[in-house]
Target: NAD(P)-dependent dehydrogenase (Short-subunit alcohol dehydrogenase family)
Amino acid sequence: MGGLAGRVAVITGAGRGIGREHALLFAREGAAVVVNDLGGSNSGDGVDVGPAQEVANEIVAAGGRAVANTDDVATWAGAEALIAQAISAFGGLDVVVNNAGILRDGFIPSLSESDWDAVVAVHLKGHFAVIHHASAYWKAEAKAGRRPNAAIINTASASGVTVPNAGQANYGSAKAAIAALTLVAADELERYGVRANAIAPIARTRLTLATPGMGALMAAEAAEAEAEGSFDAFSPANISPLVAYLAGEKCPITGKVFAVQGGAISELAGWHDVKTIETDEAWSIDDIAARLP
Model:
């Protein structure tokens, strides 16, 4: 049995891609997994229980414990039902991995209100709503004398924290906010026995394959790796070991954001001072213009 033995984990967006790899690894490591996936399109349209159920079935067939869930984490009620199912099915909750996401790219002048709202809802609200309901459970457990050893792993993105992408104002903004939310959650929830960290992964998924410039690069890398039998740097499976470590009982880390791709893991630092100008009197516009490049 692995390092997650006895842990109960909710993993959102776990029907495909990175989330699927998380779910399979968590189960192999001994966790009971609630496989959440709405089963919609890249843009978030439609509902299909198939992806979540297939992953849950695969876990159970291999001797693990899993249930499928298609609740919409972009809604308060959906997130609440998801957390309730974990507690009902497996008797508790130890880990939340927020991974669900959609894409509706567009340049700022042409980006519609609905496309902005949908992406922010699934990513940012979808993270917060699940954290809200999970943390309410953990707080109650702590106050009842059953202090949790719980973990939250959020999913930010290079698009939001290191390399903003043109055409992804909605996605990048939500992902940057998720990094900030992670730091706040780590600070607030530590008192209840909860750690919070985030990852900014780069891997081959249906979303990245649909991103202009990324899809062709990742497809070519996969073909080359398969032909040569070499390491596939864009495989989504490369992301999950870090997430599994952060979810473990013995992991002490909290309040961190990690970039992860292929064989590289980097700890990221947020906005910080790189240069300061000062004056002993009130600023004038001319002074600022002369001193601030």
Q: What stands out?
A: The radius of gyration is 20 Å. The beta strands are 8-12, 32-36, 65-69, 95-97, 150-155, 194-201, 257-261, 264-268.
